[in-house]
Amino acid sequence: MRIVSLASLTLLAADALALPKPKGPSNKKGLKAAARHWRGRSAGHSTPLQSRDGNATASNDGGGWLLTAQVGPSALTLNIDTGSSDLWVASTLMPANEQSGVQTGHSLYDPGQSTTAQPISGESFDIAYEDGSGSSGPEYTESVTIGGANLPNMAIGVCNSLTLGSGSTSRNSDGPVGLGFQSINSASPTKEPTFAEALVAAGAVSDPVFSTFFTTDDSGFILFGMTDSSLYSGSLTSVPVDSSSGFWLLDNVSFGVNGNQFSSAPLTTICDTGGPGLDIPADALSDYFGAVSGSGQDGNGNWYYPCGSQLPDLDVYFPSGSVTIPGIALENGSGDAGSNCYTWMGTANGQGSMGIPFFTSMYIEWDLSGPTMNFARQA
Questions:
Q1: How many Cα atoms within 13 Å fall on the side-chain side of residue 363?
Q2: Over 60: is that where the pLDDT of 54 sits?
Q3: Residues 315-341: what's their mean pLDDT?
Q4: Around Cβ 349, how many Cβ atoms within 10 Å?
Q5: Distance in angstroms (rounded) separating the CA atoms of residues 355 and 379
Q6: What is the CA radius of gyration of the chain?
Q7: pTM: predicted TM-score of the whole model, two decimal places
Q8: Among residues of the chain, what percentage have pLDDT more than 70?
Q9: What sign results for the dihedral spanned by CA atoms 263, 351, 367, 24?
């Protein structure tokens, strides 16, 4: 999920170069953690994400991916968020009314019950997200284990003030593991490294990468410090990342269908695992649905298509390469014949977003050293 400051960023244009990356053996020093998908409206995306037809029988309405982390004595469920850079946890320091906002079945971290927790003198965190939610509190060092790798002195935020997003009554996780870049970590006065960056600094992994293989069931996972070539087909396409703003941004991205590139101007897109929508320019969206018989726009300007129709694949172009998102990955729910269905695609407002269709169709290597993003279709 993007932090709120992103809306005011001036994005810097840069020439991206997409190059094929040959397959190689899996890195021997890495770790793997299961990533479960949860569904629930992910705020910060203005386009309705569910079917507007009364006959719709199923709908994904946002969500993200969760992993299990051992934080001190507590087994916590954290959401994987490449659109922020804090690892913070809901805690017993929160007022009782805020503690009730953490869903039943989730845990509250209690620093007083941990023998490995140490407050960082004078340091605190304060983060706000685009959906109106936020969290703040003191920073601690704590033992954090994910996927078998332990960081005994990981800096974490311990929430003592929790704000839920607009229209939300509870959280689906105990906190996020932010995997953006350190420059947007909210800790003050010292910005702390992310879990992925801390693994590299500690020598816990050989390569400064993490990889995602996300699905919409419970078979996905995230890998730290390794690439698994058995998880993708073909060669990886490598695209430089503009990290100057602290986010995973890809510049000069354009779109097409059936091998024909749209004439819309290329744009910068964010790769944020906390955001569900695939946002593209309005004219590109119009061109795409122009290839779908029976499609149209509802009263809110959202594009629909006849349920049961086969959506064409969406081509995503970089200056020197392209990947293809299968049409089926664009579908957001299903419905009876004769009714209208919607997709995950929405209109970009100055900046695009890759969203769920990209994350669930691609094996993605997030390389901190370039930085670059390397991706290929999931095997």
A1: 19
A2: no
A3: 88
A4: 12
A5: 19
A6: 20
A7: 0.84
A8: 83
A9: negative
Phi-psi label, residue 113: left if phi above 0, alpha if psi -120 to 50, beta otherwise: alpha
Average pLDDT over residues 18-29: 41
Query: Tokens in use for 66?
Result: 């969760």
Which ranges of the chain would DSSP assign to H, the alpha helix? Answer: 96-99, 195-201, 282-289, 327-330, 355-361
Burial of 112 per CB tally in 10 Å (0-12, 13-18, 19+): exposed
Beta bridge pairs of residue 261: 256
Phi–psi pair at 80, nearest 5 degrees: -85, 120
Read off φ and ψ for residue 217, nearest 5 degrees. -120, -155
Strands (E), 159-235: 161-163, 175-178, 209-213, 220-224
User: What is the distance between the alpha carbons of residues 26 and 49, in angstroms, rounded to a whole number?
Assistant: 37
Active site residues: 81, 272
Q: Please state, in angstroms and as integers, the Cα–Cα distance from residue 320 to each residue in 19, 20, 239, 278, 315, following that order.
A: 7, 10, 9, 21, 13
323 strand-pairing partners: 316
State both tokens at 346. Answer: 């929405």
Instruction: Sort 51 into a burial class: Cβ within 10 Å, 0-12 / 13-18 / 19+.
Output: buried
